[in-house]
Amino acid sequence: MTTTNEIADKISTEYGLTKVQGKSIVEAVFAAITSAASSGSETSIPGFGKFKVKDTPEREARNPSTGATIKVAAARKLSFQPAKALKDALNK
């Protein structure tokens, strides 16, 4: 697993920045994606993929232990669709 600190360290090493600067860059990217998703916008990163907000309708589900039917409220979810370049890199 890769953490945000590891990503920030890699950026700071490759571009001659301090670790604090690398961390702020990583946090700024995540904040921009979060902000766009909160407003319902799509974020596209060429060569990596797209983050899209999708609405899920209200539905019925079952409690597996009791078998009782419950209602699951409508919600919004964030989905990721990888770019072709990322898919190709994964399947080499």
UniProtKB/TrEMBL annotation:
One of its GO terms (molecular function) is DNA binding. Residues 39-68 are annotated as: Disordered. CDD domains: HU_IHF (cd00591). Coiled coil: none annotated. The keyword Isomerase does not apply. Residues 52-62 have a biased composition (Basic and acidic residues). It holds the Pfam family Bac_DNA_binding. The keyword Cell division does not apply. GO terms for biological process: chromosome condensation. Keywords: DNA condensation, DNA-binding. Belongs to the bacterial histone-like protein family. This is HU family DNA-binding protein. It comes from Rhizobium daejeonense.
